[in-house]
Structures are given as structure tokens and as C-alpha cells.
């Protein structure tokens, strides 16, 4: 059968073919490799010698990234696009930070033009950081969801978002009602869920800003709409945990509030998960609920140290995430660096393959997307990031003395940032090119 729309990408192909927590040979590489893409999907990966000799590829232009690593596009499993403009706001922990900086920034999204401008800026930040899949909070304004999905549809990026449901403990201008949040979310699901690579995420902000009635409606939306996600926050900050205990005195724990309303499950993903107890961890495992580990945010807001080993020992799926703007960078490389350091403070040394897994195949699995993205297996969507291991003089020096792929990858994950991203492709199509971006304007 003839292949359609063939593209060839040549470089040092590196990806995970399994879970590095379970197998020592999960990291796979082809030094001088070619990824063959047909109609936006991976068709084949092989050595350049072998692939380019195949007669069917004769005469097809090969995109030359020979000096670069070719990695699967990064997955950012939790961030807030309305918080892009207030990233790096000084001096507060979670609850004060929300009131002082976050809610005012989100109130500006009542203006549709502002939402559209920020959605555009946000998408460019994803691509210039090599992020090709993102699970995103919008605001409580319905049109904030439309604005982001419109940009994502145009670019064909894999993106999940949803209207924030919030009917108490927030400024009036951001507050909805339980019934209206249900109707608005349902209408957005019908409009956007399953369009191209877009999927809807039911988005109750966190237990303190929803009444029991609203959490009930969130559970109904999650149960009644096939394939939609549920995203929220849990057990991030000690004062927050205490507040939830006061608001929901009958619940066994913070997580139990969500459990009570049917908000756990294999398409539910919770950010932070720092202050959970043993029964909570068991419940997350039993329900196959996923966690988003947000290291730059947890350090910036002084929230606490995520226990990566405890979670992986229980086989709970974990995805790395930036949590911009509580998080301080859009770069999943910067995020991996901070994840490593948090683990070190817990007496754990996460290796390069485990870190890369948590931002590619492992996060794809956490989001039930492992049949579509996360590595270069045949049939997967060809989201590719070309990475420059020598983007800075210091990185060049470090790479000169690195002996193995693991050593190089580890140095990349610790030293790297957006300067390392040479190009980003979504289903083969280029959406970012460092060389073009850096050209002076005429
Ligand atoms: N908990 C509830 N809302 C938020 C938010 O916007 N950011 C963070 N980091 N935690 C939250
Ligand atoms: Zn968040």
C-alpha cells in the first residue's frame, strides 16, 4: 500500500519503550536514525543507512537534525494559561497567592480579546519549550476555553482544558453557580470534546472554591460524558488541607471529598498530592487516579516535597508538570531539574530515564494517551522535539566529557532550558524553529 504525505526526520532518536521503574532497558536510541512519518503518524524508526536505502523513500526530502537529539514531544500535565502574565509573583504561599495575584489575573479574562492574546502567547511558549501535549486550566469564563481551544485547533496541538468551576470563596467576578457551571461545561463538552486532538477536562478548581452541590455536578459531568477528563488540585499546602477539613468536616481526608463525589478514576488527574496519607495513596492506586508532580511550583510556593518513590512503589501514574504560574518556567527541562532536586531532599535519586519517562511516555500513560503519544512506536502521533545538547558553552563542555547516553541525558535534564529546543513538530508539522525565531526582523 502506498504511503501518503511522507516526511523523514534524521537525528539521534531517543525515547522510552517501557517503564524504566520496571525495566533497565526501557531507554532506546538510534544514533544516526530516521523517523519516517506518514500522514502525521510514526511509520518506522530505523538507522539512516537502512531507511534511506529503501526505494520507496528515494527522492523524499529528509529534514536534517543530524546534530540533534530527536525526543518525543514533552507532555505538560498541569498548568494555567491565565496565569502566564503573573508568573514569578513575590512573597506568598498558596492561599494568599491566589487572592493577591491569581484571582486578579484571572478576572482580566472577562475581556475576550485579552483571552485570545494570552492563548496565542501561551501556545507559542509551549512550542518554544518543546511541549506538544498540555492539560490546562482556563478561567471560569466560558470564552476563555473557546479562546484556547481555537488556537489549539488551528495548530493541531494535543490539548485538554476546561472551564473552571468555582461557586464560593472567590471574587464575585469569577464566581459561577453550581447549576450554571454544569450547563456551561456540558455545552463546552459538546462543542469541543473530540474535535481534532482536543479533549475536555471537567475542572473544579479545588474543594474550597466549590460547594458540595457543585462537586456533585462535576461528578455527574465526569460520569455522563464518555472520555472526558477531570482535573483539580489536592493536598498542596498545609493551610489548604486544614481549610478543607473545616469546610468538609464529615470527610475522612481532603482526597476523600473528591472520592465522595465520584471524582477519582483513570481519567482524573490531581496536581500536587504532597500531603496525602496512606489511605489516600491506596485509594489513588485502586482507582487508577493520576498525579501531576509540579516541582517548580512546590518549591516556589513553599508547598512541600512530593514523595516520588512512595507513589511509584504503589504503581500510581505520575506526570511531570510546570503548573505555570505557581510554577516558574514553561520548560519541562527546568521542571525535570527541580524534580530531581526535590527527590534528592527526600533521599531519592531519580535517574535520567525515569525523569524523561515522567515527561513523555509515563505522562502519556497517566493521561490514558499512551496509545497515541509518548514515544516513537509505529502508529503514534509524530510529535517530535529536536534538542540541542550543546546549546550553551557550559553544556558543550559538559557533553564533551559525558561518556554515555544516560550521562548526556541527565546533564540535559539538569542544565537544559528553552535554548536547547531547536525545533518542535506537531504530527510532523513544524510549529517552532529556533533558527527562524532568532533571525533579526527586517
Ligand atoms: N489550588 C487552587 N487553585 C490553584 C492554582 O491556581 N494554583 C495552584 N498552584 N494551586 C491551586
Ligand atoms: Zn495548578
Brief write-up:
The chain contains 17 helices and 16 strands. It has 442 residues and is an alpha/beta fold.
Describe this structure in words.
- This protein has 442 residues and is α/β, with parallel strands linked by helices.
- It has two domains: 6-73 and 375-437, Roll (Urease, subunit C, domain 1), CATH 2.30.40.10; 74-366, Metal-dependent hydrolases (TIM Barrel).
- Helices cover 38% and strands 23% of the residues.
- It has helices spanning 48-52, 94-107, 112-128, 142-155, 178-192, 212-224, 238-247, 254-260, 278-287, 295-300, 308-313, 332-345, 352-359, 361-366, 393-401, 405-415, 434-437; strands spanning 6-16, 27-38, 41-47, 62-72, 74-80, 131-137, 158-162, 164-165, 198-204, 229-234, 268-272, 290-293, 318-320, 384-387, 421-426, 429-433.
- The strands form two sheets. Strands 5, 6, 7, 8, 9, 10, 11, 12 and 13 form a nine-stranded parallel beta sheet that branches.
- Strand 11, helix 9 and strand 12 (290-293) form a beta-alpha-beta unit.
- Helix 12 (332-345) crosses helix 16.
- The longest helix has 17 residues, at 112-128.
- It is globular, with a radius of gyration of 21 Å.
- The mean pLDDT is 97.
- Bound molecules: guanine and zinc ion.
- The site of zinc ion (ZN) has 6 residues, from strand 5.
Amino acid at each position: 500500500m502506498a504511503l501518503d504525505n511522507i516526511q523523514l526526520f534524521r537525528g539521534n532518536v531517543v525515547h522510552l519503550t517501557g517503564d524504566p521503574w520496571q525495566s533497565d532497558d526501557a531507554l532506546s536510541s538510534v544514533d544516526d536514525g530516521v523517523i519516517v512519518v506518514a500522514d502525521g503518524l510514526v511509520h518506522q524508526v530505523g538507522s539512516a543507512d537502512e531507511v534511506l536505502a529503501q526505494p520507496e523513500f528515494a527522492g523524499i526530502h529528509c529534514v536534517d537534525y543530524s546534530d540533534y537529539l530527536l525526543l518525543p514531544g514533552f507532555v505538560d500535565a498541569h498548568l494555567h494559561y491565565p496565569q502566564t502574565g503573573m508568573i514569578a509573583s513575590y512573597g506568598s504561599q498558596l492561599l494568599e497567592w491566589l487572592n493577591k495575584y491569581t484571582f486578579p489575573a484571572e478576572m482580566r479574562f472577562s475581556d475576550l480579546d485579552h483571552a485570545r492574546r494570552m492563548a496565542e502567547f501561551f501556545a507559542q511558549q509551549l512550542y518554544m519549550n518543546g511541549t506538544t501535549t498540555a492539560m490546562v486550566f482556563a478561567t471560569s469564563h466560558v470564552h476563555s476555553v473557546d479562546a484556547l481551544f481555537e488556537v489549539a485547533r488551528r495548530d493541531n496541538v494535543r490539548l485538554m482544558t476546561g472551564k473552571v468551576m468555582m461557586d464560593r470563596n472567590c471574587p464575585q467576578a469569577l464566581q459561577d453557580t453550581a447549576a450554571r457551571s454544569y450547563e456551561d461545561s456540558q455545552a463546552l463538552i459538546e462543542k469541543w470534546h473530540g474535535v481534532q486532538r482536543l479533549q475536555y477536562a471537567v475542572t473544579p478548581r479545588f474543594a474550597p472554591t466549590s460547594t458540595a452541590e457543585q462537586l456533585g455536578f462535576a461528578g455527574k459531568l465526569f460520569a455522563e460524558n464518555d472520555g472526558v477528563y477531570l482535573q483539580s488540585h489536592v493536598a498542596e499546602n498545609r493551610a489548604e488541607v486544614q481549610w478543607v477539613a473545616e469546610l468538609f468536616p464529615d470527610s475522612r481526608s481532603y482526597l476523600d471529598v473528591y472520592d465522595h463525589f465520584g471524582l477519582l478514576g483513570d481519567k482524573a488527574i490531581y496536581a500536587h498530592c504532597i500531603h496525602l496519607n496512606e489511605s489516600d495513596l491506596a485509594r489513588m492506586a485502586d482507582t487508577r487516579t493520576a498525579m501531576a508532580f509540579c516541582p517548580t511550583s512546590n518549591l516556589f510556593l513553599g508547598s512541600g516535597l512530593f514523595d516520588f518513590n512512595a507513589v511509584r512503589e504503589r504503581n500510581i501514574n505520575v506526570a511531570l508538570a510546570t503548573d505555570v504560574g505557581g510554577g516558574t518556567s514553561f520548560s519541562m527541562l527546568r521542571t525535570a531539574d527541580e524534580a530531581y532536586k526535590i527527590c534528592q531532599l527526600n533521599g531519592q535519586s531519580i535517574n535520567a530515564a525515569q525523569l524523561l519517562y515522567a515527561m513523555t511516555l509515563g505522562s502519556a500513560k497517566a493521561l490514558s494517551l499512551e496509545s497515541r503519544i509518548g514515544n516513537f512506536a509505529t502508529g503514534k502521533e509524530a510529535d517530535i522535539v529536536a534538542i540541542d545538547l550543546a546549546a550553551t558553552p557550559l553544556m558543550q563542555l559538559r557533553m564533551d566529557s559525558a561518556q554515555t547516553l544516560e550521562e548526556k541525558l541527565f546533564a540535559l535534564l539538569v542544565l537544559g532550558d528553552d535554548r536547547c529546543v531547536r525545533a518542535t513538530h506537531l504530527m510532523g508539522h513544524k510549529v517552532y524553529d529556533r533558527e527562524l525565531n532568532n533571525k533579526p526582523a527586517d
